[in-house]
Amino acid sequence: MPPLNRCLPALRRIRLANATFERSIARQTPRLPALPAYALLPQRRWQHAATASASQETSNEDEAGQPTPSKQIKYTSDSYPDLKRDSRFKQLDEADVKHFKEILGSSGSLIDGVTQDAQDDLEGYNADWMRKYRGQARLVLKPTTKEQVSGIMKYCNEKMIAVNPQGGNTGLVGGSVPVFDEVVINLGKMNKIRSFDEVSGVLVADAGVILEEADSYLAERGYIFPLDLGAKGTCQLGGNVATNAGGLRFLRYGSLHGNVLGVEAVLPDGRIFNDLFTLPKNNTGFDLKQLFIGAEGTIGIITGISVHCPQRSPAVNVAYFGLDSYEKTQQAFREAKKKLGEILSAFEMMDGAAQKLYAKANGAKLPLEGEYPFYCLVETSGSNGEHDEAKLNDFLEHVMGEEIVADGVVAQDETQVQSLWACREGISESSQHFGGVYKYDLSIPLPELYDLVPATRQRMEDEGLLDAEDDAKPVMDVVGYGHMGDQNLHLNVVMRRYDKKVEAALEPWVYEWVRERQGSISAEHGLGLAKRNYVGYSRDEEMIKLMRQIKQLYDPNGIMNPYKYVSGG
Amino acid sequence: MPPLNRCLPALRRIRLANATFERSIARQTPRLPALPAYALLPQRRWQHAATASASQETSNEDEAGQPTPSKQIKYTSDSYPDLKRDSRFKQLDEADVKHFKEILGSSGSLIDGVTQDAQDDLEGYNADWMRKYRGQARLVLKPTTKEQVSGIMKYCNEKMIAVNPQGGNTGLVGGSVPVFDEVVINLGKMNKIRSFDEVSGVLVADAGVILEEADSYLAERGYIFPLDLGAKGTCQLGGNVATNAGGLRFLRYGSLHGNVLGVEAVLPDGRIFNDLFTLPKNNTGFDLKQLFIGAEGTIGIITGISVHCPQRSPAVNVAYFGLDSYEKTQQAFREAKKKLGEILSAFEMMDGAAQKLYAKANGAKLPLEGEYPFYCLVETSGSNGEHDEAKLNDFLEHVMGEEIVADGVVAQDETQVQSLWACREGISESSQHFGGVYKYDLSIPLPELYDLVPATRQRMEDEGLLDAEDDAKPVMDVVGYGHMGDQNLHLNVVMRRYDKKVEAALEPWVYEWVRERQGSISAEHGLGLAKRNYVGYSRDEEMIKLMRQIKQLYDPNGIMNPYKYVSGG
């Protein structure tokens, strides 16, 4: 860029870019609903899973490379032949179903595939949205009270019936669907907001309340849920807490370990863990609820939560930049922290490949005219629009003037805010649009965070597995994006079809790479089934032993969400 | 106040008040050092404990009402005759001391009261600063590495030697000093900052680093420790984490459960709990470090921590108000949240009695000319001074104009900031200036939070225990103050001398009062020895049972900080 640019007011260039973007939006079919686009992705996700596209079908090959029947995802037990059903677990019979029916009474409901054929009804509870995992549950229970959950658990514990707690089933690691015939306990019918205090901002809600519904409820009252993520339209608060979900507001509001004030859960033996405290401070003994935050349903079923919700910021601004290098992206982040201070609410990074993929999968036009190797999305949220604009302008003047960013747009209205966020939030779905995706969710120190992406691409090329054009190669692309402000990279290996050779080349190689940099192999997605054998890459033996002690203490029969989490070798 | 006042610009009145305050400060002996006054309180605290005043001495009566020898605080075992030394614990002998000397080598050190007389040297480790608790340890160990701590614990576990982990010994519930002859393991010599990342703001430090030193280190680098409290000049990071300290920045930065990223600890059997992670997100299994946050040294000794530190706000403003009622104080809080939004960093409440007590104990003049039943201190911290001032002025105009506050001052410089904070932070020490104090640290829902103070006063009066002037009565005053923004009340019963009749009238009455309002009997001070028998007022039986299971799991021999925490009846 010519030095002349330093004299050009940054804002004039920004406005120019906006005008271009507005025209480009106008040309597109209006595909954005009134709600933020990313809020609706999960629903679309599930449609994808239920009505498989041709490319997805062919991606489901059995061991011999034969496509499995249409609409059916391969059973997890077939994909992971090393997994064997634990023979200690009881096989369900008619008496069990009868007993559960009695517990549920008229308020709850169940899907009975034990005494009748309910294959189709069960499918949505057995299969995950990525079409990677498929269990063989024959019974889904939908309790409406914690007492019902307690009755179910007590019975299961006595009879050695394995269970799979399930929220919105939007997980990415196979933790939310059964592996074999575990009973699915779905929390979807426990979906009431129990109370909200408009002075303290404390929300008490059933575990099955959908995140987006909680957030809308709070929005009407001037508050915000301290967590936001792409699956918000489907995922449930209980599942969010059980998986310690991170997401888009983490940079500003921090971890659920800080925001969740109370947890109500049913223990494997039916006892109720009653810690639904609603005040910010409570130093009365061990903070045991913390164990349930991120336990992924392995020591109990969360039935209710209380959470401290911050005030909603009336002013929200979103800017989207193109940058010439990862080094410049880091610089932009440092400047955003400095210049935007307490109003910075998101700093997201997307690489050029991720943005091209998004545009290709959605037939969308990107906000900037030029192409850049890196993009970032910066969001501010504050209480005073004028002040925030002044801070943002100061930031923009600086990063444009110093040529830290090459080009940028600032959203001028809510529709543009949604369009810009869609460029970031649409990547996940776009990644699996063409046949499948291997997803990695990693914590890596900022300076090295992006290095993994070119390294992975190189590895795929070296192994002869990647080609952008050649359909004979299983890998189409390798893209990187993520919550840069949280040092959290999402690495997606975009597949034409799932291929065990690719998986073998990626794992444990990716985990080894992360371990060398003292990162985490699971930043926010959890362990589930996918990473059960890789915990050792982020935790030492002693820690894993201590974790298994906790599991043993709370669930001595091992009936809770078996085969997953820290159960691996 | 006349309606005319609505037309009077709030700021003119505020400036007037400031001028008065400035004159009043000028008249006083300059008693405020360059550092914030409250930062230096703990040192003064300890001086108090070491050089007991006449009134404090007479407050130490033995069972027969005889004053104990000068400079000596009553033994805890005498104050609590129901406590018996656990006979399973080994009595130290010469061989033990020799072994510990070998472990500590030349880098660590010990105070040996086993093979020689070291009574005076041991006193500061046996007695707490409130002069309420006094143990009988004959050995203090000061290791310098986690390996030394590990060696010590392994030996103690094998030999059944009870230990008392100790940080800065600034606790308020008798948790930081031994009860009988437990070996004190003092972390003071593990006092190095291990690393700091200037981009992410992550600090890794030894447990024995003093909070104020950590904060000063961070201040030089543009960051702030997410915790601040009166004892900052003496308390240590390890102790802060072990007690899940709350303090003055909680409203803004939240709980240590959210800010602490990693914990390194030595388990009772000498194993090292190695979870000193430095990135914000890690969902690789149970978040076990959370158990150590607030465990009060009962399941392990924290030797190192990593913590996410926010950026330091360059602009800090402090205002101090007089208000006519608690209802108006609540209104002021709601307005502060609304008008100050993301820059509100503290909202502290002090009642009139608390402020008078502070003035009396310190010979200080209060910032406002008039007397009010309530006062509050509001602090803002932000990245842009002009914006913050505009927000603050908007808030001031509103609360003055609407007569929510009756009068107020705004600090014009750092000295005034310190003076205003001293009015809040000085209450704790002032409360025990006249002979002693019964302190309660409670979480109570905001609307009822203050009700406990007049109720307690009434009870003291009804029992004939309180008189402001009559020295024959043990209770001089009942004052209430606290972190109103966190729904955290500090109730102090100001004593002329300790009196078991007062204690009997207060406990469990206070705890019953709090239980009825679903509050917590320990908001931020912890359980220690003081509340070991009262956990049941805030936790149900099932929860306490689960807590004891954790204790049993980690410390089957029960050697860690015995007689305290959840060990009570």
Would you give an account of this structure?
The structure is a homodimer of 569-residue chains. With 569 residues, chain A is α+β, with helices and mostly antiparallel strands. Among the domains of chain A are: 3-14 and 316-409, 2-Layer Sandwich (Alpha-Beta Plaits), CATH 3.30.70; 50-189, Uridine Diphospho-n-acetylenolpyruvylglucosamine Reductase, domain 2 (2-Layer Sandwich); 193-308, Uridine Diphospho-n-acetylenolpyruvylglucosamine Reductase, domain 3, CATH 3.30.465. The first copy, chain A, contains 21 helices and 16 strands. The first copy, chain A, has helices at 10-27, 37-50, 54-58, 76-79, 94-104, 119-126, 146-159, 211-219, 237-242, 250-253, 256-259, 289-292, 326-340, 352-362, 385-401, 414-425, 427-431, 452-462, 500-506, 509-516, 541-554; strands spanning 109-112, 139-142, 163-166, 183-186, 193-197, 202-206, 260-266, 272-275, 301-308, 315-323, 344-351, 374-382, 407-410, 436-443, 475-483, 488-495. In chain A, the strands form three sheets. Chain A has a seven-stranded antiparallel beta sheet, with helices on both faces. In chain A, a hairpin with a 4-residue loop joins β15 and β16 (488-495). In chain A, α13 packs antiparallel against α15. The longest helix of chain A has 18 residues, at 10-27. The termini of chain A are far apart. Chains A and B meet through α11, β8, α13, α15 and α21 of A and α11, β8, α13, α15 and α21 of B.
